Structure formats: structure tokens, C-alpha cells
Amino acid sequence: MVKKTTLQVVSLGCSKNLVDSEKILGQLPSERFSVIEEGRGDPNIVIVNTCGFIHDAKEESIDTILQIIEKKKKGLHEKVLVCGCLSQRYLDDLRQEIPEVDAWFGVSAANDLYAYLKETYQNDLPQRYITTPKHYAYLKIAEGCDRTCSFCAIPMIRGAYQSASIDSLTEEATILAGKGVKELLLVAQDLSYYGYDLSKKPMLAKLLQSLIRVEGIEWIRLHYAYPNNFPEDVLQLMAENPRICNYLDIPLQHINDELLLSMRRGHSKKQTIRFLEKVRRLVPGIALRTTLMVGYPGETKQAFQELYDFVEAVRFDRLGVFTYSPEEGTRAFNLGDPIAQAEKNRREEAIMSLQASISLQINQAKVGKTYRVLIDRVDGKYLVGRTEFDSPEVDNEVLIPDQKEIIPGQFIDVLITKADEYDLYGKPLD
Ligand code: SF4
User: Fold this and answer.
1) Ligand 1 center to residue 228 CA distance, Å?
2) 152 CA to centre of ligand 1 in angstroms
3) How confident is the model at residue 377 (pLDDT cuts 50, 70, 90)?
């Protein structure tokens, strides 16, 4: 019997990168390669799928590559391969600076990596090796982005928007459901644009209509909607169909009109507020998640205060904050980086501390109510799960005293008995 080569993908950055990593792993023939998950031993080959979105992510990617190179020098790995956003963006520099890497690939690495490993495809369908818990998986519905946000390097790295077809996504969802996936997390740089490149009209609702018919999929969650032109029929479908989680992740970045203009976001404060009101009117009880950016050039104290007041007024259910980092090649790069990192951090902390108090109030209002919870894992004395209002990794969790007969991947009804800022506690209903 041929001894299998062991292989591991270290996936950095966002969930879209994770899907790419899963596709890379899924395309390697299992009779030749066996996958070792992170932390479970030292594989022959390590593939680092890098992120190049912002300064911190780039630093993390380079540190990770260097740590793995050190292990290679000690003989723990045979080959180190690097792919993803960072290597797409800085290929020539990286090649020179880290010659110990055996091969470099860009963002569409799966085919090239496959060729590098001297194998041929056996199956036209996109195969994936799922690295998330068995019951949920990300479904990347498009690649690239057609917007021109001034601070963002993604269109440069990933190219123009390219929607995957409804047929191929439905097929992928069917394969995932067959492997035990119950929750699909739809991701793209910009969900709102889905379909425009194919048919000059929005097709997200049509895609959802197809996905809700896939047997075994019980929850579909939407990540990364752009506030402009978000299709209204999706909101109607969300309100009507229990399989589409009442959840929307809309990165807004800022609310001050001058900054929105400089960021080239294409929407104003007034339009943003109207859009959020419409979402809440059409889908009562929806959980809204957003991501904001502080410290963008020109963010005066007043502009920051406006953002702070907006967060206080809108009361998002979930919220994350980035500090601005200038990226070469973007339009905003020429504006410099006039706000000190310490001040950016202070602004980030101010918003996160405001959000903690909002989140606590929202959570406390859930005590005494019953929610359907999907169990993700067992952690010590607790079963840990989520409601439809929470996405894995980034949102709140529900902690339930362990009951041996309940297992990860199971849906149960839970009565909420206690709440803190980011967690709920509950007991299963009989
Ligand atoms: S919508 Fe804007 S921020 Fe998001 S990927 Fe596209 S250009 Fe970047």
C-alpha cells in the first residue's frame, strides 16, 4: 500500500478564505493524501492560505509562515506552500524575502496547487473537506467585488465580481447536506450584488428559493450585505420562511456623510438609516450585525461622536470594529494615516464598551423566553449552541448544562434563564 502524504491547510483571515481552503483540501485525492487538522500533529506538507486585508492580518500571515518555516528547518515538514490574498498581492517581494517557501500561489490556488502536487481532477464538482463542525458550512456564492471603497484592497486582489451559478451552488449545498450540514452560511464580499454580473438583476432571492428546497438544510444565514440595492424580495422571503435565519450582517463602516463620501461607499447617512428601518419593518425581530471602521483619515472627534451616537441609537444586536490601516494601491492610501494608533484604539474601545452595554440589555430581555438552539459543541460542563440570531465564531452563544443524550448538531428548544454581555444560559425544555 502506498504511504499517504500528510497535509494541513492553515487558513487565515475570513470565512471566504476558509471555503477556499476547504476546496483545496477536498480536491486532493484521499488515496494519496491524508489531512491532519491544525494542532493534531506535524504533516509532510503545510499550505498556508494567507489574508492580506489589513495590516494586522498581513502581519499574522507572515508570522505564521515564518513559524512554519522554522519547523521545516527542524525537519518537521517537507514542504511549505503559500497561497491566498497576501501572496497574490505581494508575490515578487515575498518570493525574495522568504525563499524557504517551496511554492507560492495566488487566490485561485486550488487548480495550481493540484497541478503542483502532480494530480488530475477526478470530479467536475467542487469537492470540499469541511473543517467547521459537521453541522454547519460556509457557502461562498461569489468571488471578487465590483465596488470601489477607497480603503479596500479586495477588488485589486480578488478581481471583479463573479457570481457562482444557482445550479452549482444548489449542487454544492446538496453535497454539503449529504455530509450532515444543517446550517449554511452564505458569504461573499457583497451579497447584495449577487446575480447582477450574470443577468443585470438581483438573484439572491432566487438562489435562496433554490437552497431552501435542499433536504437537510434547516438554517440559511446571510453574511456581508452591502447597504445599497439590497434586494427587498430577500427580506420578504426571510420574514416568511423559517429556514432563512432572521439575521443580516451588513458592514456599514461609518455614518458620517463626509467620511462615507471619501470612502466612496455610495450611500449617505440618511439612506443608511432608512435602509435599516426598512429591514426592521419587513423582518420584525431580525438580528442586525455590522462592522465599523474607526480612525479613517479625516475622522474628526465630531465625526467619531456621530458614529458613537449612531451605534447608541440603532442598537445593533452584534457589532465589530476595525481600526483603519492604509493599504498600498487603494485610493485612501494617498490620504496618509494621520490618526495615531493609540487614538484609533481608544475609539475602538469606546464603541465596543458601548456595544457591550447594549448587548447586555438585549440579552437580558431574552431571559424567560424560549429559543430553538443548534448545539455546536460540548465544552466542559456545558453544551454550547446558538440561536438563529447568532453566527458561529463571532456572535453570542447559549450555554446549557451538559445532558448526555444531547449531541452537537442537534436542535433543541431552550428556556433562557440568565444572560450576560455576550452569552445566554438556559435549560432544555422537556
Ligand atoms: S464592498 Fe467595499 S469593502 Fe467590501 S470588498 Fe467590496 S470594495 Fe471592499
Assistant:
1) 12
2) 6
3) very high
